[in-house]
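Quick one, tokens below:
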């Protein structure tokens, strides 16, 4: 098969679209703001296909297993991995905040703060245990397939997969049907990805047009600190984990370049989920591992969000001259650990979990969130990128632990990404 020219490659088209969006938003901000429907429309298109992709991938993955104990073992290992690295990300954010003091010197009077964060306070109750249970249990067996709650789709897919295993002979036709259905479902994913440059252009033009590059410059120290911290987490922490498990983090990033550029352009990790799941399968991870670990990680393994939570909390405290003792910072860490897990499935989890955390730490006024409200859109891109990379590494690691990773296929995929991409489009 003849290789595509560079201008025909999706990642190149997305890069050009992002640059054009930045230029339009910078020089014609009013027009840039009007591009919002393009970004929102593309993300909505992708969300339309997420539930079927997760349901089919995970259901078939479990249905093809003969030992249901393996499913439980995979889930436990994945959750232990998520808990350890999510907590590590929170600790790193806390350490960096204490070392660099990004909010020191601003000397802002809490009484002078203005801005509406009520919508995030209202959603914060969803991070409680009751809210979490209500989020994960669907109204009906099929309602998750027409919604956008990943956890509910996971629950139904796991139950369906187990039921197919327990009724294997009588349910073979159902399994065969789902297997056949997976082909056109993933073809729809490829069709939708053709619109990725349009979505990235619209989302970036709106972001720059509405918030402006100036809003970043006003708080450049905080934004820069967060981006550098997240980058070091990926290169040093996740890089070490990758090396220990026999693959190169930089080759993985290049292999996933289209998905990562899509996340950068749209500020949404969900925009990359269908393509990410397919690429990880092509890279040698079993369908069961991908179907279980990736969607679960999107809710429980939010490394970028966790770094942001503790770093942003300290920034607000320092900007308002609130002195947090070591004891209070440890309480902040514990609260963040709980709220970050409880926010699984809550829309806009990054800012919501920050609201939930500050609500339980009275020393930091929740009104302080208005200090970073204007730049949160720019920070959400870094959060989403780090989250996607963290979940990609987690999937390969868990597959390796479970001996459900084709290491030769992994190396071939990472060393020949263009050949894999061409194969996916067939």
């Amino acid at each position: 098969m003849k290789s595509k020219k560079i201008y025909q490659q999706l990642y190149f088209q997305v890069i050009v679209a992002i640059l054009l969006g930045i230029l339009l938003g910078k020089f014609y901000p009013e027009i840039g703001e009007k591009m919002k429907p393009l970004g929102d429309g593309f993300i909505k298109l992708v969300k339309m296909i997420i539930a079927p992709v997760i349901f089919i991938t995970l259901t078939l993955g479990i249905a093809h297993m003969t030992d249901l104990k393996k499913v439980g073992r995979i889930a436990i290992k994945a959750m232990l991995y998520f808990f350890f690295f999510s907590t590590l990300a929170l600790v790193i954010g806390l350490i960096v905040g204490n070392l660099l003091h990004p909010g020191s010197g601003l000397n802002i009077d809490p009484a002078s703060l203005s801005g509406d964060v009520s919508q995030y306070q209202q959603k914060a109750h969803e991070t409680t245990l009751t809210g979490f249970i209500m989020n994960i249990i669907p109204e009906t067996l099929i309602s998750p397939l027409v919604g956008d709650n990943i956890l509910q789709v996971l629950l139904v897919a796991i139950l369906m997969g187990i039921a197919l295993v327990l009724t294997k002979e009588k349910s073979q036709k159902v399994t065969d049907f789902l297997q056949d259905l997976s082909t056109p479902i993933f073809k729809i994913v490829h069709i939708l990805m053709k619109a990725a440059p349009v979505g990235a252009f619209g989302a970036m033009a709106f972001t720059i047009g509405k918030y402006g590059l100036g809003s970043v410059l006003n708080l450049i120290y905080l934004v820069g600190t967060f981006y550098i911290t997240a980058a070091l987490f990926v290169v040093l922490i996740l890089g070490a984990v990758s090396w220990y498990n026999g693959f190169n983090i930089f080759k993985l990033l290049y292999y996933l370049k289209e998905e990562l550029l899509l996340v950068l352009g749209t500020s949404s990790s969900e925009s990359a989920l269908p393509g990410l799941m397919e690429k990880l399968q092509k890279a040698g991870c079993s369908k069961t591992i991908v179907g279980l670990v990736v969607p679960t990680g999107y809710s429980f393994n939010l490394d970028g969000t966790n770094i942001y939570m503790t770093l942003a909390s300290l920034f607000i405290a320092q900007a308002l001259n609130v002195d947090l003792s070591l004891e209070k910072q440890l309480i902040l860490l514990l609260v963040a650990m709980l709220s970050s897990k409880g926010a699984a499935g809550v829309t806009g989890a990054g800012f919501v979990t920050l609201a939930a955390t500050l609500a339980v730490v009275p020393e930091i006024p929740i009104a302080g969130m208005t200090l970073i409200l204007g730049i949160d859109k720019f920070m959400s891109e870094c959060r989403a990128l780090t989250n996607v990379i963290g979940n990609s590494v987690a999937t390969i690691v868990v597959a390796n632990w479970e001996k459900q990773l084709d290491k030769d296929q992994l190396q071939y995929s990472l060393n020949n990404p263009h050949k894999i991409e061409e194969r996916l489009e067939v």
